[in-house]
Design a protein that fits this description.
Layout lengths: L24 H10 L14 E2 L11 H7 L10 H13 L4 E5 L2 H12 L5 E4 L4 H9 L3 E4 L20 H11 L6 E5 L12 H14 L2 E5 L3 H11 L8 H10 L3 E5 L10 E5 L2 H14 L10 H13 L3 H20 L12 E5 H4 L9 H13 L1 E2 L1 E3 L1 H4 L15 E5 L7 H16 L7 E5 L5 H4 L1 E4 L10 H9 L10
Parallel strand pairs: 1-10, 3-4, 5-6, 6-7
Antiparallel strand pairs: 2-8, 7-8, 9-12, 11-12, 13-14
The chain binds ligand F0G.
């Protein structure tokens, strides 16, 4: 083989395809208006390349599709449950499995069982649904992630790490008795898909054990994190992905899982734990909210496909190509000088809206406006991860605010090609060239919970001309009245 051999290529060929269609620009403008400038409210038929999320949007393998046919749809004691339990024990190592229809259902059950009003949950950055379930159960979340995580330009290889001093300070301030668990996410979603190191997790685990505090692992993208440890943490280059996943899980007491990501299925999740008593309580509660403890809101066939996906996702060639594709897009943008979060994340490329549309102030939702503009340009759907996603403090009603103001371009697994990534990069570069003409938004409808999913916006009437260069300003005046005044 030549020394110029490329580092990865897709370890699969394509057996089934789904056609894509694209609206023309006036069609996209109308669709965006109808969606209240929120990419979550677009119809998927109006989207060309869908990078809204990597959740449930994966392509299943032929083996997963075949597994659907052998699903056992028994209400109780389904054979498929036992297949899934074997897969979870083999790869993640937790003793008890409680299936749920997706990740947030596991978070709900866990939060209701472990949290009492007034509790504190330290964690390595919030996730939207996870924090909401903690709050609904009466707790407050405290972020103990390292400061580097909030700086998009900082190249720390493990920006998902916990700051041990911050964690110790939370324990000293509130007392271990008010901390039912520490919430540790792998490949931290909200700061750009950034991993934590095993060295850091070992230290967190030692501290937690000394204090008698449990660690709950959000294992949603644990395999992607394990791959980054394999690549970048000294001593792990020769360890398999499965071994690293197992080492991560063994340092924690239980996990919540959205199998719609790493595990390569379109629906499904679980709660898994080593503690017998907790598992018994969770099995009892899942019956109330999800379904019997041997299916938890899933069909037997879903559990079969998940069992196959759990084993497939730790294959080195798979994960190398998955993260390799994300890096491919990230590098195209980096080379073009587009401000993105660095290092490139594992599940998507995140645009730094603070620098991309620096003329927009936080009150006019820069990342939301940028996501809308990218859709308008090319039909590529992305999403906001900034002040809208951060939501409000339920007690004070104040906006949480967000140091990071990002647009997430999340790549579904095994779905799009390299040419699709080229199209995405071309569109983002095009939008960047005309960024000065992007105007901010105002929120016209704000739902109470998880507002980013359903909020509606309207463009502000005028471009902030004062902040434009004089040439830009001339362009803006010449075609006043239109939202997007870029030359065509
Ligand atoms: N934890 C993390 C880290 C997640 O990314 C998600 C979902 C969940 C929990 C909740 O799981 O959706 O199955 O209920 N993230 C999706 C996303 C929605 O687009 O990042 P769920």
């Amino acid at each position: 083989m030549s020394a110029r051999k490329r580092p990865w290529a897709e370890p699969f060929k394509i057996k089934v395809v789904e056609s894509l269609s694209m609206l023309d620009r006036p069609g996209r403008a109308a669709a965006l208006e109808q969606a209240g400038f929120n990419t979550f409210l677009l119809r998927s038929d109006d989207v060309y390349i869908d990078l809204l999320t990597d959740s449930g949007t994966n392509a299943m393998s032929d083996r997963q599709w075949a597994a659907l046919m052998i699903g056992d749809e028994a209400y109780a004691g389904s054979r498929s449950f036992f297949h899934l339990q074997d897969a979870v024990r083999e790869i993640y190592g937790y003793k008890h499995l409680i299936p749920t229809h997706q990740g947030r259902a596991a978070e709900h059950i866990l939060s209701q069982l472990l949290i009492k009003p007034g509790d504190i949950i330290p964690g390595n950055m919030y996730f939207t649904t996870t924090r909401l379930h903690q709050e609904l159960a009466g707790a407050s979340f405290v972020d103990v992630i390292i400061d580097e995580a909030n700086d998009p330009q900082n190249e720390h290889p493990f920006k998902g790490n916990v700051d041990l001093d911050k964690l110790q300070a939370v324990i000293d301030n509130f007392g271990a008795h008010r901390i039912p668990y520490i919430c540790i996410a792998t490949a931290v979603n909200m700061c750009g898909g950034q991993p934590l190191s095993l060295q850091n997790l070992k230290a967190v685990s030692a501290l937690a054990r000394r204090q008698g505090i449990r660690i709950v692992h959000d294992a949603t993208r644990c395999v992607e994190n394990a791959y980054m440890i394999h690549n970048n943490e000294p001593g792990y280059a020769d360890r398999s992905i499965a071994e690293i996943v197992r080492e991560i899980c063994d340092l924690t007491d239980m996990c919540t899982m959205s199998s719609k990501k790493d595990n390569l299925v379109n629906i499904g999740g679980f709660l898994a734990a080593n503690d017998d008593e907790f598992a018994e309580q969770a099995r009892n509660m899942v019956v109330v909210y999800e379904g019997l403890h041997t299916y938890g809101g899933l069909a037997g066939r879903d559990m079969e496909a998940m069992a196959v996906g759990i084993r497939e996702c730790v294959d080195l060639e798979h994960i190398k190509a998955r993260v390799g594709q994300v890096y491919y897009l990230g590098r195209l943008l980096e080379e073009a000088g587009i401000p993105i979060v660095k290092p490139i994340g594992t599940h998507g490329v995140f645009l730094d809206a603070k620098r991309f549309v620096g003329h927009l102030s936080p009150e006019v939702f820069p990342a939301q406006a940028l996501a809308a503009e990218i859709y308008l340009d090319s039909g590529v759907r992305t999403m906001e991860r900034g002040i809208v996603s951060a939501g409000r403090d339920p007690k004070s009603g104040r906006n949480y605010g967000s140091e990071l103001e990002l647009v997430r371009m999340t790549i579904p697994r095994r779905v799009y090609t390299q040419a699709h990534m080229d199209v995405v990069a071309e569109s983002v570069i095009e939008v960047y060239d005309h960024r000065r003409w992007i105007t901010g938004l105002e929120m016209t409808f704000e739902p109470k919970f998880l507002r980013f999913f359903q909020a509606r916006f309207r463009p502000l009437a005028t471009t902030p001309v004062a902040q434009l260069t004089s040439t830009d300003a001339q362009g803006a005046t010449a075609s006043s009245g239109a939202r997007h005044r870029r030359p065509t």
